[in-house]
Write a structure and sequence with these properties.
Blueprint: E1 3-12, E2 15-25, E3 30-34, H1 41-48, E4 56-61, E5 64-65, H2 71-76, E6 77-80, H3 92-102, H4 107-120, H5 136-148, E7 154-158, H6 166-181, E8 185-190, H7 193-199, E9 202-207, E10 210-216, H8 217-222, E11 228-233, H9 239-246, E12 251-257, E13 260-265, H10 268-281, E14 288-292, H11 296-304
Parallel strand pairs: 3-8, 3-9, 6-7, 7-8
Antiparallel strand pairs: 1-2, 1-4, 4-5, 9-10, 11-13, 11-14, 12-13
The structure holds adenosine-5'-diphosphate and magnesium ion.
């Protein structure tokens, strides 16, 4: 296994914040760590990065423990922390030179690499500006550039898109895809279900310090069944609507509230025309239709009874 945590435990005071966390990250994948604020994601990441010492358990990189000595892991790992780690008074260039030297680069190799990472993150033309003049999104991108300086095999990103503009966000998401296509393994931490769903091959869902589910997106969605949800605003709901819909064998459940009907359906796309006909045939006056496919938000709700979002 590329990277593995075994029964990782961390407490602050008497509060167990990371509670026997077992993760297995395969080489070449984008691994998502998804959970609401306070779930223990950053604490888990900090232990993997060697910034925090676990109270119990182990971290194995290619079979070797990184808890006692994490130097070998630090050399092959880039970290994009949740909080920006840059010198505000220095320019982007100067910050990158600083990080490059920290990683042991020098001379032409360092010059070359600074240019490359600026180009990758789309900020070459702003390189001579001070970081404190940068927008939040640009700071994030330079933070990522800094983590790339030493060409890490493993990139760990902790909520890299929180509080930034859509353009920087898109740039970051597309960059992650590209890094991965070039062979980099990535651990992507987020409380945004859509991002994790878009980027990650496998996902661990964390809540209150525990991993409550781990698998591919499809495996996780299978936990909530594979039904789609069709939401129709139909005006007044007549008994007839319910009756006609329940006659279809692919309709799993019907929930009626005021003037909307929620229909759990297998393969909604195929059956939508029939559903619409049935509702209109029963005198329904359809004002809107929405189809929701199962997503990770639904998985979280299914497992915890709570929404993922704050
Ligand atoms: N240094 C610390 N001292 C005390 N409590 C902490 C510390 N760091 C994190 N916590 C607490 O641990 C829990 C998990 O935090 P964190 O790992 O940052 O969660 P996440 O990254 O998923 O939002 C939270 O309840 C947080 O308040
Ligand atoms: Mg965090």
């Amino acid at each position: 296994m590329f990277l593995q945590t075994k029964d990782l435990v961390k407490s602050f005071g008497d509060k167990v914040v990371v509670d026997h966390v077992n993760l297995e990250v395969k080489e070449g994948e984008v691994f998502g760590l998804l959970g609401p604020n306070g779930a223990g994601k950053t604490t888990t990441i900090s232990m993997i990065c060697g910034l925090l010492k676990p109270d119990g358990g182990d971290i194995l990189f290619e079979g070797k423990s990184a808890v006692k000595d994490s130097m070998f892991l630090k050399r092959v790992m880039g970290v994009v922390p949740q909080d920006i780690a840059l010198y505000p008074m220095l320019t982007a260039n100067e910050n990158l030179y600083f990080w490059g030297r920290m990683y042991g680069l020098s001379g032409r190799e360092l010059d070359q690499r600074v240019k490359e990472v600026l180009d990758i993150m789309g900020l070459s033309d702003r390189a001579k500006e001070r970081i404190d003049k940068y927008s939040g999104g640009m700071k994030r991108r330079i933070n990522i550039a800094a983590a790339l300086m030493h060409r890490p095999r493993l990139l760990i990103m902790d909520e890299p898109t929180v509080g930034i503009d859509p353009q920087s966000r898109n740039h970051i998401l597309e960059s992650v895809k590209q890094f991965n296509q070039q062979g980099m393994t990535i651990i992507y931490t987020s409380h945004y279900m859509e991002e994790v769903e878009y980027l990650c091959h496998r996902v661990a869902i964390m809540d209150y310090g525990k991993v409550i589910a781990l698998g591919t997106k499809d495996e996780l969605k299978a936990m909530v069944g594979d039904a789609d949800k069709v939401i129709m605003e139909t005006g007044l709901i007549f008994d007839d609507i319910k009756q006609r819909l329940s006659a279809f064998d692919y309709v799993e459940n019907i929930m009626v509230t005021d003037n909307t009907v929620d229909i759990l359906v297998h393969d909604a796309k195929t059956h939508l025309p029939d559903l619409i006909s049935a509702v209109i045939g029963a005198g329904g006056d359809i004002a809107s239709i929405k189809v929701e496919e199962p997503n990770l938000e639904g998985v979280f709700l299914h497992l915890t009874g709570r929404q993922l979002r704050d």
